[in-house]
Amino acid sequence: MIxxxxxxxxxxxxxxxxxxxxxYFIDHLAISEQDAxxxxxxxxxxxxxxxxxxxxxxxxxxxxxxxxVDDALPLEGVITPDPQLSRLLSxxxxxxxxxxxxxxxHISHGRRIVRLLGVEELFEGITYCDYTKEPLIxxxxxxxxxxxxxxxxAVSSQACFFVDDSYLNCTHAQARGWTTAHLVExxxxxxxxxxxxYQIQSLEELRIIWPQFFKLPSTGATNLSQL
Length: 227
Description:
By secondary structure, this protein is mainly alpha-helical. The chain is about 45% helix and about 10% strand. A three-stranded parallel beta sheet has the order 3-4-5, covered by helices on one side. Helix 8 links the parallel strand 3 (about 160-165) and strand 4 (about 180-185). Helix 2 crosses helix 3. The longest helix has 23 residues, at about 5-30. The radius of gyration is 18 Å and the shape is globular. It starts with 6 loop residues before the first helix and ends in an 18-residue tail after the last helix.
């Protein structure tokens, strides 16, 4: 999902999320904090989402997990409207590209984030991990990319342009034929091998690498749809 949080905000949200996930592991699996962190990381690495491992191996109710983790995050006041992101999305030429959210979150959390950022009305649709269905399907599984293409009405994989801050998600998108930009913000370590053709430090750079999707004249910002 496109997000333009500062590194400080991103870290704060990440840390809050990790704490709630670890607490869920501890409470529902009756394991130690150390074991919870190890199992959380194991499931995230293997499946792309901790919840997928919980559902596969522990028969956890994903909607209950969503209520106690994602939807329980105290994000109001942490994530605030982002005028720069709003300008970026508004500058897209929607005759040429469909701004589309593509997230591993359940729909309630995905919509909450863009509402808090003040850009909910600037996307034409959303592809999300549906916690009401089994098996759970999320990025980087191939079926999730299939779903995104179908939801967005893409005519082919080659017609899809994608930006994500996950190395793994970007490598799979690139291999699929999507034109992909890996967002690696300043202050974060750069990968030894690039995940995709493009690597950017800011969404603003999308105006430079994909100028064909923006209205003219340029206002000096940059953005993209997440498909």
